[in-house]
Predict the 3D structure of the following.
Amino acid sequence: MLTAYHRQTVSATPLHRLPAHTASKQTMLGAEMRIYRLMAITLPPFNSEPERGLLTLQRNLPLLEYLVQRMNAVEHLVRTASELDVDAELLARCYGLAFEQVRRMLPKDIRQPNNLLRPFVLRAVRGEQIEVHVSNRTQSPLHLALLDDDYGIQQTAEQQHPLASGESGIYFWQCKQTGIYPIFNEACPRALQQRCLLGVLMIEP
C-alpha cells in the first residue's frame, strides 16, 4: 500500500533575503496570470544529503510519495522489471493515471537522478503574474519567499502568515524582470539554505 509522507525538518531562512512586502490584487490587474497548483512535501535524508523540503505539482504527489517510500526502504533500493510493473499498475489504478506514463517514471534504482526529486521550476514570462496555490504537507510552518537582491520582486498578497501543517494558501508574484529566483521557505527553523530551497522561479524575456 502507498502511504502519505508527512514529516519534515526544514532549515532556516537565508541570511541575505530581502524582507517581504505586500502587493494588492488591484495593482496587478491587466497582466497575464499563470496559475500553479503545488504541494510542499519533505524528502528524507538520502545518499548523504540532509532532509529537505520540496515543491511539487499536485498531480505528481502520488509518484513523489512512492519515491519517498523507496528512499526509506534501504533494503529495496533496486527493483526488478516485474516489480516495477506491479508498482506502476497499483499507482495507475489507485490514482487514475495512465500505466505507460507511470511506468516510464519509475526508476529501477532509486539512487539514480530523478527530475521529480529536484527543486521544482516555475516558469513565467516577464510581465506575467504568478498565482501559486500551495498546500503544506510538511510538519513545519511554510511561507514561500523569493530570493532577489536586485529588483525586489518578492511580493505576496492575501497569504500574509505562514501556513501550518495541513493548511493551504495562495501567493501572488509579479514578474518584473527576467532571471532565476530561488524559492525559499521563509519560516525555516534552521540556517542552512539548501534545506529550505523549495524550488526556482525562472522568468524569461
